[in-house]
Specification:
The chain is mainly α. The protein contains twelve helices and no strands. The longest helix is centred in the middle third of the chain and has 34 residues.
Amino acid sequence: MTRLLQIEWLKLRYNRAFWILISMYSAGVIIVCSGVMMLLQYLKSKGADFNGIDPTIIPFYDFPDVWHNIAYIATFFKVLLGFIMVISIANEASYRTMRQNIIDGLSKKEFLMTKLLIIGILSIGAMLLLFLIGLTTGSIYSHVWGWKYIFSDLQFLFAYGFEVFCYLTFALMIALLVRKAGLVIVGLLMYTLIFDPVASKLLEHFPHIWDQIRFLKDYLPVTAMNNLIHVPYMKYFFQEIQDYISWRELSIASGWLIANISLSYWILKKRDL
């Protein structure tokens, strides 16, 4: 495993795009997840209120709710980590390092393992970053204290790490299939933010669709991953939310994870490197 990590690290170490995307992801998550209180204060200064409620009293950073609240925000940034896998595979194809690795004795299974190891490290790193943000902002703004509150609901951080892992395997599979970085980046961005969510909503609400196929809305790849962490904010308007990780939705996302890895391996075996 150490040898596989060293091989991948040597490829990424001097890759400028890798460091730029890591920086963009980290900066984006830190600024947006930490800036909600400033946004609420700004809204208050402009005279905004939510049904007569002062926006700054919304306990966004209270423990343990902070974990669910910031994990949902961070899901929108995972696409930046997906670009890392796309550029990594595109560089492998352009500079023929993938072919050279195979010639030097690396099996295709080991090659896939190097990518999965990096995906695992990125996912754990994303989860730890979110933990530090939640701990810091909660320490500053939370009205609720105590270890049992701070370490409650951490399942949302693990769900976020799992979601990032699933999504990066999805990006890896698409990148292995197409190998054109520009095309895949645009396609992945549009599919993640537009096509998949719109298709899911159409399946759920469009009147001229057979009821028998509406269940497919939960099985689209990005929707299946996004469903791990549901929108938490409606609780502040006294509406019910799903404040737990559903086993059914975890199973669907796991199914996509297995499919992504299996398809990636199948593509590697079938294609001429």
